[in-house]
Amino acid sequence: MITKWIIGSLILAYGGLLTVTGIADEYGRTYNEVDGGNSDGYNPLFDPGNYHAPTHFPLLFPPNAYLALAEQAAVDGKVDDARRHTFDAMRHNPANGEAALMLLDLYARPALYRVVLDEAEYDAEDTSTTEPDQATDEIDTAENFPAISPADKAVADTVADISYRLRPTYLTTLATVADYWSASKEDAKSFRARSALLVNNPESAEVTFPLFHTALDDPRFTEFFAQHLADPPVWWPAFFNYLLANEPDADKIHRYYMARANSAHPPIPAERDSYVNHLIKSKYWSKAYQVWADNLGIPADSETQLYDGGFEDTKNINQAFTWKISQPAPTVKVQQTSGMGVTGKLGLHITFKKGTKSVVFQHVSQTRLLPAGDYTLQGRYRLAQLRTSKGLRWRMHCADQPDLPLLGESAAFKGNGVWEKFTANLRVPTGCQAQLLRLETDSPYAHHNVFEGEIWFDDLSIVKGSTPP
């Protein structure tokens, strides 16, 4: 008897559960969301231009249907009703992230939903006759989008804070929270959310960097932003590159760079090199040299001297004003290495292996900033069976005016021999701000540029005045 009673109770309970879930499913189909995936249902709430606040709700009214009501109300400009329905959805399900984001959107950018109305696909006969341009104008009016009350602002602030803490890596959450704090003029919180968005989604820089760039014209934001330069976020170098490409005020860029340079965490090499190269591209040669020299602790007046003429520094090669060394071909090896007869520990050693094809060698160079005048390039070299028809020469070009004639060149290096000294007269004309000293093939013709053997260089320097012939 007891068994039958238990079985009967379970059947009744199961039947009740089916009834309740059936009713809930029916309401779910009847009141599915505007953009929901239930294609079988019909949503009587979404009727653009004809929103009416419901007088009552069914017993098992599905919580997500409140979002459909909220969107319907927002589309028709009834923002207060939209917010109320969103609160209803959150009361039924406090963990409803979609409702939280909709609430923040309704405070930060309610016009978003009116844009949806303009783009929605529905029969014009069933909608308002308002022209699109008029609708757009209405989006910006205070009548359609009332100001937020202090009480509602406190609730929305709490929702924004909780959403950020619970979903700190969700891109939609971060973007919505950032927009909300921006609309609320909470720069610190907006910056925090946008920074997290950039960390989790670097592609958001396409939208976020222009916002930051524009905000830099606001002294209040600039002061706040400067506080983060001492220990910048990971995306700062990318934003600095954005500024280099888009900010026309060179002084503003320099202020931000110097703020970084004087901080406890100075610019990383990529950041510094980007700025130096930007200055060079803009032909601010002296400022570029100063930034580069300050980083290495080199006196600013060293710009007239060759940097590391003994080829001892292997750490700072391939920077704007150091030796730029590269490899022209697999059969050619250019390196700073030790060897017999070098001064100090290292010298420049170039090896052309047997079978090396014709090569246009221009792979060792350095940029200097010499005032107009006469100079002498001097140094030492050693040949080790360097077989070629024309040889290699040190030549100086005007870096900022490459069409000018050569500023000077050494004799051609080829053959075999012990360590010897060499000199070359250089003349820098007025107006040539920067010069390029480069080791290069003597001839422009391919058949002259077949090499085999070795050559060494050491103790290079540039001194004021010319050497008598």
From TrEMBL:
Domain of life where this protein originates: Bacteria
Gene3D superfamilies named among the record's database cross-references: Galactose-binding domain-like
The protein's name: CBM-cenC domain-containing protein
Species, as recorded: Thiothrix lacustris
